Amino acid sequence: MAPQVGPRIDNRPPLMFVENVLKTSKMVRDVECQWRIIRENKELVKRINQICRTKGFLNVNYNFRVHQSLNSAARGLRARAIERQNQALLNRLLRRKATVDSNLPHRRKTPPWWQLELPHRMAIEFWERTDRRLCQLAIELCPAVSPDEIMLGAGKLFRIYGDTLVVIRAGSVHSEEDLTDGYGTLRHVQRGSFVKQVLDGREHFLITLRTIGRIVDGKLLGRIVSSSMEKLDLINSYGSKFGRCKEPIYFDRIRA
């Protein structure tokens, strides 16, 4: 008689279903995506091989001949006639002198002086520590201002007040010069204006970095051209609240 056996121990590994660990739907989508990419790559390789064999000429039927008819010939003649008419109209427009409507306001008849082609212009180059060129500012002078009146050569910037003014100190003023001629209070001075001011017997040239409400005892000489307006931000970055320059900035006047 066989001996009695106690309860057996189940040492078999548990059933491991894939659904309990991974998401089968995502696996199926990934497999389908991989097969789709493989098919697209295969078609792409076929297309590349076809382009290489045909040197890039695809779907071109060289046996096709354009059917010439009387209608197409008439359209060609009409198109050439229209082209000649357009060319004649263009020549008339180019030879036409500019006219101004008499009903326009006066401020629209006469453009501002800074939009005119001025015969006199000056430029100032700025350098950092005399060895690194920063930028060049082109200045259009007012019609009543001559470049010879601006006694400005080369030197070092006096002050750069952040977001306010660039101050260039020039030479002393002669005692016989009439300082009252052309000087006064300037109001609403736009950004980029070039102003002359005499303080303590010395000339100072100001370049405004923003619109200033009032400048006392100043004379407007010109303004910075629009193409140099962005360079004012570069010069402004070297300024401070009390005008002390972060780095020595030198300037030199040149002919524009």
Can you tell me about this structure?
- This protein has helices spanning 18-21, 24-54, 70-95, 106-109, 231-236; strands at residues 121-128, 132-141, 154-156, 159-161, 165-172, 184-189, 193-199, 202-208, 212-224, 249-255.
- With 256 residues, it is an alpha+beta fold.
- Among the domains are: 22-56; 121-255, Beta Barrel (Cyclophilin), CATH 2.40.100.20.
- Strands 1, 2, 3, 4, 5, 6, 7, 8, 9 and 10 form a 10-stranded antiparallel sheet that branches.
- A hairpin with a 2-residue loop joins strand 7 and strand 8.
- The longest helix is centred in the N-terminal third of the chain and has 31 residues, at 24-54.
- The radius of gyration is 40 Å and the shape is flat.
Secondary-structure topology with pairs:
Blueprint: H1 18-21, H2 24-54, H3 70-95, H4 106-109, E1 121-128, E2 132-141, E3 154-156, E4 159-161, E5 165-172, E6 184-189, E7 193-199, E8 202-208, E9 212-224, H5 231-236, E10 249-255
Antiparallel strand pairs: 1-2, 1-10, 2-9, 3-10, 4-5, 5-8, 6-9, 7-8, 7-9
